[in-house]
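Sample intake sheet
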Amino acid sequence: MTKIENYIFKLFDKNNLSYDPELIRYSIVIILRYSICILPALIIAIYFNVFNYFCLFTISFYILRIHFGGIHLKSHLLCTITSIVLLSTIPILSNWLEISKQSIIVIFLLMFFIYLMIDPQDNENKRNSIQSTKYHKKIGIFFLIVFFLIILYLKKEYAQIIMLSTLLELICILISYKKRYP
C-alpha cells in the first residue's frame, strides 16, 4: 500500500497540490475494499447473465448508501462476504420476482415516506455533524425523487431492481437505527 500512497503523494507534490495524507490513505483503503466486494459479484453477475441488473442495482444502492448510511458490521471480512452475497444474489433473484409496475410504485412511495422520517445513519466511529446529516438527507431525498421518476419510465424489470436496492438500503438503515436507538 505504501507504493500506492507514495505514488499519489508524488503526484500531488509534483502538481503543487495540498493534501491530507490520512484522507489519501483512507480513500485508498475504501477503493480497495469496494473493489474486493464488487469484482467477485461482477464476475457472478456476468456468469448468470445479469450484468445490466447488477450495474443498476450496485449504482443505485451505493448512491443511497453514501447519503443515508446504514448498518456497519463488526469485521471487514463479514462486511465483504455480506456485500458480495447481496450484490450478486439480488440481481439474480430479481429474474424470478414478478412484481407489477403498480406494486413497485406503491412500495417505492411507502419507502420514500419512511426515508423522510429517519435521519441518515452515521458510523459509530465517525459521527456526522447536524449540518452534514441535513446535507446528506437532502441529497439522499433528491436521489430518491430521481429514482422514482426513473422508475415511472423504465421497463418493469429495471424498475424492480431500483426498488430492491432502495428496499435493501432501507433495511440497512432500519437495522442501524434499531441498534442505535433500542
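Comment: The helical segments are 2-14, 21-47, 51-68, 76-93, 101-117, 130-153, 156-180. Residues 67 and 139 are 7 Å apart (CA to CA).
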